[in-house]
Amino acid sequence: MDNKNPVTAIENSTEFKAMMADLAALRADVAQLAGHVKASTVSAAETAAGQVSAEATRLMGTVSDASKTSVKAVERQIDAHPLVSLMLAFSLGFVGSRLLAK
Questions:
Q1: Which of 17, 36, 57, 85 could form a disulfide with 78 if both were Cys (CB 3.0 to 4.6 A apart)?
Q2: What separation in angstroms does the CA of 99 have from each of 80, 85, 90, 91, 95?
Q3: What gap in Å lies between CA 7 and CA 26, rounded to an integer?
């Protein structure tokens, strides 16, 4: 009967050492792949954030232009009918104060 420990015999075998080397290489490959996936995801997120920011800036410009146009239209209406505008503002203020008082 052989007095060698079976676990030690397996650990010392060339097949086991080759398998452990392959496992270490696989771990390194998986770590490298995870790094590439992370970098790709971060890059895609940065690109999307840039596109969202550009679109938000464009929309803010559009809203700003539209509000300036609306303000000018209201100013022209007030200039054309100052008395009606004053009576309308007074009426809205009166109704608003009555609604808030209740």
A1: 85
A2: 30, 21, 14, 12, 6
A3: 24
Please state, in angstroms and rounded to a whole number, the distance separating the CA atoms of residues 31 and 99.
67
Tokens of 57: 């800036």
State pLDDT tens for residues 10-49. Answer: 777 888 889 999 999 999 999 999 999 999 999 999 999 9
Residue whose pair of structure tokens reads 């803010």 in the numeric block: 60
Buried b (16+ CB within 10 A) or exposed e, 61-72: eeeeeeeeeeee
| CA 87 – CA 62 distance, rounded (Å) | 32
With vertex at residue 78, the alpha carbon angle to CA 72 and CA 80, rounded to the nearest 5 degrees, is 100
Rounded to an integer, what distance in angstroms lies between the CA atom of residue 92 and that of residue 84?
A: 12
Cβ atoms of residues 77 and 85 within 8 Å = yes
- Do the Cβ atoms of 17 and 23 come closer than 8 Å? no
Please name the residues in contact with 78: beta carbons below 8 A apart, sequence gap of 6 or more: 85
